[in-house]
Amino acid sequence: MGRADHVCVRRDALAAIEGLYRARYAVFLRVATAICGDAALAEDVVHESFVRAVRHRADLRDPAALEPWMWRILVNEARKRRAAEQRLVRVAEETHERAATNGDHGRVRALIAVLPDRQRHALFLRYYADLDYEAIAAALGISAGTVAATLHAAREALRTQLTEVER
Amino acid sequence: MIEQEVSKILDAAVPAPDGARGEWERVIRDAGLRRRRAWRLGPVLGLGAAVAAVAAVALLWPFRAEPDGVLERALAAVGDGPVLHVVFRGDWGGTLVDLETGARRPVHAEQEIWYDAERKLVHQIDRLGGAVQYERVSNPRQQPPELAALSREYRRALEAGTARVVGEGVVDGEPVYWLVYRSEMLPDVADDRLHEFAQQVAVSKETYKPVALRDTRDGKPGPSTGRRVLELETVSAEAADFTASGANVIDGMAYKEGREPIALEQARDVLGRRPVWLGREHAGLPLAEVTKTITAHGRQAQIELHGQSAADARECFEQLRPNARSRDDRPPEGRPEVCERARRAGRGLSMRDGRVYTHGPIRWERDRTGVALFYGMVGDDPSTYREDTIALFDQPHVSVAQSMQRLSVRSAPPGYVPPEGSVFVAAGGSGFLRRDGLFVSIQASTEDLVLSAARALEPMPG
User: Fold this and answer.
1) Domain spans in chain A, listed from the N-terminal domain onward
2) What mean pLDDT is reported for chain A?
3) Which of these, B68, B123, B233, B315, is most buried using a 10 Å CB contact count?
4) Which residues of B touch A123 (CB under 8 A)?
5) Domain total of chain B
6) For residues B42 and B153, what is the distance between their CA atoms, to the nearest angstrom?
7) CATH code for A3-83?
8) Are residue B357 and residue B378 in the same domain, yes or no?
9) How far off is chain B from A32, nearest CA to CA, in Å?
10) In angstroms, what separates the C-alpha of B80 from chain A's closest C-alpha?
11) CB A158 to CB B6 under 8 A?
12) pLDDT tens string B247-256
């Protein structure tokens, strides 16, 4: 790629990133909140993810792949933050323990929190961000077939847990 | 359960954060997108003038720092194709007045230009209310300076970071940043000092697309230099349009009109249908004259000259150019011999895009007839024979010209038809409207009279 092409990609990418930010900010925030379990932390995650995307926009070779690329950055950032703060794990454990008595909101959060990361993230990207399997695969760095299997497992797990809680 | 219940669970777990919009400006700032290079002053600038120029910029920009990312986003908004596509709002047009409510709406002319600097192609289309008034595809030998500057220097200044934000403002209700993209320090003979002459672009704070242009001297806009930009982008050669959709107009336009008095009763026969009128009088002005109008439009072909004739004409234009000097550094005296030779090659020599043209014969279209009603005073013209009785257009008056054919109504812009129930008032004050299938032009001593006449038009009885 020549210098002129490089400049062109950087410029187009910035406009595309801005467009994605303005159009889908609320969705990114929702997924980040789901992963982190903390709305304030999620705002930081979304912000930092887009800052990173803008800084590294030259790495984006295919403009059509922007959104999965952006989701991948966001999921990684959210994971990193969660790991650093260990906040979600504690919240999840506590929430799960109180699930039977804490009402619907706490119960459903607990049901999701105990799912394996990959299942949770696939669920969030499928239901909150309305991504197709290909895009989820690109965002999570797995194959589309694995996405289908992961989502199936997540749904089954939710159904099983919900049944157990309702007993 | 599956799909619906999972969806329900997830909705309950993290409700959608409706209304959350984020802070893109903060993202841009934290990403470190800033103007990367300082403004570089031209080589002509001396140190003292440089200090003065920097001071002037500081005064013009009252903020601590330039807004982040403006240049990058302006660059992204302008595109990166080789062809400039720009649509200016024209500085001519008129006002559309609703005859029932009196509501007024400006009708601006638009000038659309495609410019390919590499292929030296220009496609210009002038429109009024969407109707083409003029269209031409040309290949000028010299770069049109304004287009060349917009085509290359604006984008280049944004890419290089030499453009700078010099202020904020509002253009037609749209908040903008003003950017300087081209600047020169030039001496002014009036005070023998250097001044900054600059071209500025206003970019929308929302889209970062250009919305206006202006020239400035020392940061102050020059008179009549502002141009409203409706579109400015650069596109690929494939996306550009260099095909004239209609007549490629370089021919001269010709128009002739004759009038002869007729009786009011003859008006219907002349028009071939029932005329409209304002009654026997309007606003205290009596119907004083009824005339049959015979009009014709023509085109005068422009014939390109070649060979020695063209060379003589070019040499003639060069010698007659303002400030041109002869070889011994004296202004030419009288008409140069080369001009006499060139003149023998044809009438009305003109030069356009480096090519030399002479007038060909006028080709007239067929005559068109109409009827004109004059309300006002008629009287003797003291400059001619005493028995002349003519319409006195320097007194209060209303003149209503009507025809079944648009082109016989002089003030009708080609192709443009005002919506039913409204009148188009041109900048000169004349009105144009459609009424009962007729094209009607109204000229009056005041705009109020134009509007009152437009409202009062009715079919002539009988």
Assistant:
1) 3-83, 85-166
2) 75
3) B123
4) 6, 10
5) 4
6) 14
7) 1.10.1740
8) no
9) 10
10) 7
11) yes
12) 555 666 677 7
**What are φ and ψ of residue A157, in 5° steps?**
-65, -40
Residues B276 and B347 in one domain: no
Please indicate, yes or no, whether residues B110 and B199 belong to a single structural domain of this protein: yes
Domain assignment of residue B245, yes or no: no
Taking the Cβ of residue A8 and every Cβ of chain B, the question of whether any pair is shorter than 8 Å is answered with: yes
Cβ–Cβ < 8 Å for B398, B282:
yes
Report pLDDT digits (tens) over B258-313: 888 899 999 999 999 999 999 999 999 999 999 998 887 777 777 888 888 888 88
How confident is the model over A93-117, as pLDDT tens digits? 444 444 434 445 556 667 777 788 8
Are residues B392 and B439 located together in one domain of the fold?
Answer: yes
Are B97 and B208 within one domain? yes
Rounding to the nearest 10 degrees, give the CA dihedral for residues B319, B324, B328, B334.
50
C-alpha span between B435 and A133 (Å, rounded)? 62
B355/B396 same-domain check: no
How does pLDDT run across B198-239, given as a tens digit for each residue? 889 999 999 999 999 998 888 888 776 788 999 998 888 888
- Residue after which a domain boundary falls, among B235, B265, B288: B235
The model's pLDDT over B70-128, given as tens digits with 9 standing for 90+, comes to 998 999 898 888 899 999 987 778 899 999 999 998 888 899 999 998 888 899 888 88
Disruptive mutation site among B18, B27, B208 for chain A (greatest number of A CBs within 10 Å): B27
**Which of A 43-82 lie inside 8 A of B, CB atoms?**
46-47, 50-51, 54-55
Q: What percent of chain A has pLDDT over 70?
A: 71
Interchain contact, B17 vs A29, CB within 8 Å: yes
Q: In whole angstroms, what is the distance from residue B335 CA to residue B314 CA?
A: 14
Which of B320, B343, B363 is at the close of a domain?
B363
CATH architecture of A85-166: Orthogonal Bundle (1.10)
CB contact under 8 A, B27 and A54: yes
Neighbours of B129 (CB within 10 A): 19
Range of weakest confidence among B150-154, B287-291, B322-326, B440-444: B322-326
Q: Indicate if B358 and B440 belong to the same structural domain.
A: no
Q: Which residue in B351, B284, B292, B361 sits closest to B320, CA to CA?
A: B351
Q: Do the Cβ atoms of A154 and A120 come closer than 8 Å?
A: yes
Distance from CA of B27 to the nearest CA of A (A): 5
Query: Do residues B195 and B91 both lie within one domain?
Result: yes
Asked whether the beta carbons of B75 and B158 are under 8 A apart, the reply is: yes
Contact at CB, A29 and B73, closer than 8 angstroms: no
Quote the pTM value.
0.53
